[in-house]
Design a protein that fits this description.
The longest helix has 26 residues. It contains four helices and no strands. The mean pLDDT is about 80. It has a domain of about 70 residues. By secondary structure, the chain is an all-alpha fold.
Length: about 100
């Protein structure tokens, strides 16, 4: 009986390590990559509409999707966040250019 109890407790304690590390228990989000990549794609689509998308943003989104094949890939999440930051910066640049057209001397 003790051996069965000890084996059961060992298996249960080892199974706690099987939970992916990318799960955020605080907000219930199980995939931060999906949120980051969808925000980057939405921002990139908005930037393409006004012809102010940055050169490498589309490439970053494609590369992040390729890297996301491995579960909880930190590199894919970092690249998706960087692409999202570029879309935000491109949107800011668009508003600055449209508010004061022409040369600045």
């Amino acid at each position: 009986m003790k051996k069965l109890l000890l084996t059961t407790l060992t298996v249960l304690s080892m199974s706690a390590y099987a939970v992916p590390s990318c799960h955020n228990w605080n907000d219930g989000s199980s995939d931060p990559f999906a949120a980051a990549i969808s925000a980057a794609e939405a921002g990139y689509a908005a930037n393409l509409k006004v012809n102010m998308a940055w050169r490498d943003t589309g490439k970053m989104i494609k590369e992040a999707k390729k890297l996301s094949a491995t579960p909880c890939s930190d590199a894919a999440l970092a690249l998706a966040n960087k692409a999202h930051t570029q879309t935000v910066n491109a949107t800011t640049q668009t508003s600055v250019i449209s508010s004061s057209p022409g040369p600045r001397f």
